[in-house]
Amino acid sequence: DRPEWAVSFEGLHAVVRRMIAAGRIRDEGSLATAARLWTLCHGAVTLEMAGFFGNEGRGLAQIMLPLLGDTLVGIGDERDRTAASLATAMELFSSTALAAGRAAVPARTS
Question: Of 57, 68, 69, 70, whose CB is crowded by the most CB atoms within 10 A?
Answer without folding.
Answer: 68
